[in-house]
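Data availability excerpt. The first of two example chains:
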Amino acid sequence: MDWSAASGELWASFLQILAALDLDLSTAALIKYLLLVIAVIALLWVIGDVYRGEIQNRDMAIDVISHDRPGYGAADVLFTRRTFDTRAERLPAKIIVEHRFLIAHGDRQLSRRVRVFRRAFKLNAMSKQTTLLRDGQFAFQEDIEKEIKNRAEYLTRVALRKYRGNLSNMIARRFHKDWEEPEAIGATYLARIHFPSNPYFLLFQHPDREVKATGWLTLLTSAFALFAQFLFTSPDRPEAARADPPVVVRSP
């Protein structure tokens, strides 16, 4: 079979179909269609970035633990569905872990919150809790768990050192014998989920059905407008516009 001849015939048939539809394939029209497609993609990207769904716009108080389950690696994080229901396995997302604690100094308690970790993972929601994974826990690989906790401890020490080093506390420590050392209490880990904002994730993988429906509605509405513009807009015919005007003959 001569593939070059067959492809040539197929292309010629395609051009005949376009000619029969009387489509506007001028350079200006094609640029307009391309800009419309780019605008639709950009709109989907904005929807994915702004309207990501309520399930990720909240902080979750969690315990950070480690796991050694077979089949899961460093890119996987495990939790129960009651903790966070992704409605899918190995869903891509970024996890932001923050450390919240109180600096207790006498009768004063100052709240502090520091970001300790941000990384992309595959989310794995277990159907029910086990002896190794309870509700409210995020299980990372052991090295990552140690990284999170060591970073949290370091930033806590930095916050305490900064608090002790401010001018008023330095003066109080020097002139008050009963000055008490501040300490960190009430430590809690907070997790926040950030999903990708690309159009593919919005249309096919997003766990929030309402957000996914919004994306599909935007895509289908824009596609209909594009097809209507493409199919029902008649091309300009400059040769008709340049036709000679009718000649008026007056009788003597």
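And the second chain:
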Amino acid sequence: MKKKLGLLSSLIVLVIMMAGCAGNKKSKDEISAKQAAREYIDYVVYNKEAKDFDKHFENPKKLKELSDSTTVYIEGYKRTFNGFVPEMTEDEGNKIIESVKKQLAEKTKYEIVSVKEDEKEHKSTVTFKLTGLNEEDAVKTGLTNWKNAILQDIEITTDRAKMNGILKDELTKTYENLSTIESNKQEKVVFTNMAGKWVIEIDQSEPMDNVISTLVQGEPTKELSTSLTKENDAAVAEINKAVADYNAQQ
């Protein structure tokens, strides 16, 4: 009897051990945090096909909606251009958007520098190194070229349409040939594994948004807006001073 009980106990331990091993085994659809991060960025930013996205991510429909952020930032180029050139046509705006999309795909890149695993919390902190389009440089260069053209012939300031035409031409040139900039700040995003599927929780929306905006624009929107406003004000102030000096000499 004792021998039988001992055998039964051994079998129970064996079953428990086997169950534990099965619980740690990944499903055939589960991917690593690094793979998940790459698949997510490729889909959301670069619009690459991800046929297994629904298998790899929890609540994929909600995550896919974040791809709208990329569209918003790309369309930001059109809004910025329109802010400087109000008479921009719809066709011109659409050409800007298509040009930015093309350059985003061809010129920008990201690198996953590290993945720090927290197995207890089922979380992985992914650190990104980013090289994005440099919208700030494009606008600054366009404004500088516009300002210099005006200063060379200050009487152009009497013709508002001509001034706007020069600015339109200069911004178009820079937007069609955007430079890139490597961000001096590495972005960290936490991916959470829930029963084999990955989740980007609500508190990670801002870090992920920073990744997207840095690739599309070169830096987060708030800093960019402040910088461009200062650049525009400085250019206008220099032109106004030149106008005042010209008038004083007449």
